[in-house]
Amino acid sequence: MTVSDLFEPLPLLHGPAMRNRFMMAPLTSQQSEPGGFLSEFDKDWMRQLARGGYGLVQTGATIVEAGGIACARQPGIFSDEHLPGLTEVAASIRGNGGLSAVQLHHAGHRANPRFGGVPSPASGKTIPDVSALSTAEVERIRDSFVVGAKRAEAAGFDGVAVHGAFGWILSEFMSPVLNDRTDRYGGSLGNRARFTIEVIEGIRRECGPDFQIGWRLSIEWYGLRLGELREMTAEILDRELIDYLDLALWDYDQIVQEGAFRGRTMLSVFADLPRKGVRLGAAGRIRSAERAARLLDEGCDFVLIGRAGILERNCPVLVESDFSHRSPALPVPADFLRRGGMSERFIDHLRGWGDFVRPGSL
C-alpha cells in the first residue's frame, strides 16, 4: 500500500462510509466540568479535530454512570442534561465532513473515589473491603452502556465505541485474574465475555439500523490472555456484531514474548482473523505517513492517530499535502501546544504523560 491509499473511502457495515482511513483515537483530556458536562475547552478541542480531516472522530472516555469515573474532569453521558453539549460536538464533526462516535466508558474497579467514583470490581478480592458487584449491579451497568448509546444517537453521533481496554470494567470482566465470579458473568471464557457481548447486542437492538458500533480492545496487563481474547474477537467478527475493532497497542510493532503466538506481532494475531465486513484498525505510536501506510500492508483497514493528532490537530490534512510528513519530535515545549490552540487544562494533563511536554517548559 502507499500513502495515497490512506485517502480511499472505507465503507462500514452500518451507516455512512469513512471518507478516509484516519480515525482520531479517543483521548482523555481532562477538560470537562464537574458532573460530566462538556466545557468550552472540550468543545473547542473537538472543533479543532473536526476541521482536521479525519474519517471518524471519537470523544474521549465518556462515562455511562456517575460512579464510573476514573479521573478528574471526565465527560459524561449518564444524564439527558449532557445532551446539549454532546449535540453541539456531533454537529461540529458532521459539519466538517467526518463521522463521529462517543466512546462509552466505565472504570469498574478503577473508579476513583476522589472524583466521586464508586469502585465496582468483578471480584471481592481485587480491592480490600470492597465487595464484588452483584449480578443485578452488573446488569444495571450493562443497561447504562446501552442507554448511553441511545443518548449518543439522540445527540446526532453516527455511533459509539465501547471501551473494552486497559482494565476498565469490560476488560476487567474478561480477565481470569480479576474475575473469579461464580454467576453467569464469571468462570468460562463465554461467561467472562458475556458482559461485553450483551452490551454490544443491547446497543445494536436499541439503536437504529445505521448506528455504528466500535469496540476498543487492549491485550497487555490485567491478567488478560491473548489466546482467549483472540477467540472472543473471532466470534464477534464472525457474527458481525460491530462495525470496527480498534486494537489499542502501545506500539503496533510489538512482538508476543511467550505462548503459542511467540515471535509474532500482536497486530498479526488479530489481523489474520476472518472478519467479514468488520473493519480493523490499530493505534500505537504512528508518527509518520509512511508508518501509517505500512499498517494497511499489515492487515489494517484504518489507523488511529493519538499523539500525532494532539501535536497537529490537522494531521490527515498535512499528510495529504505531503506524503513524507512526520510528526514533530517529542517532547515539545508547552508553548508549542499553546500556540496550536490547546487549553491549559489539557497541557497540565499532558505534563503527567512524562514524555510529551518538555520538563520545565512554561
CATH C-level category of the largest domain: Alpha Beta
Order of helices and strands: EHEEHEHEHHEHEHEHEHHHH
Query: Which strand-content bin applies to the residues?
Result: 5-15%
Number of strands: 9
Radius of gyration: 19 Å
Helix content: 25-40%
Counting structural domains, the number is 2
Q: Specify the number of helices.
A: 12
Secondary-structure class = alpha/beta
Query: What is the name of the CATH topology of the largest domain?
Result: TIM Barrel
Could you please describe the fold and organization of this structure?
With 362 residues, the chain is α/β, with parallel strands linked by helices. The protein folds into 2 domains: 3-328, Aldolase class I (TIM Barrel); 334-362, no CATH class. The chain has helices at residues 40-50, 83-95, 135-154, 169-174, 189-206, 226-238, 266-271, 289-297, 307-311, 315-321, 334-339, 344-351, and strands at residues 22-24, 56-58, 62-63, 99-105, 159-164, 212-217, 244-248, 279-283, 302-305. The protein is globular, with a radius of gyration of 19 Å. Residues 5-320 form the NADH:flavin oxidoreductase/NADH oxidase N-terminal domain. This is NADH:flavin oxidoreductase. Keywords: Flavoprotein, Oxidoreductase. One of its GO terms (molecular function) is FMN binding.
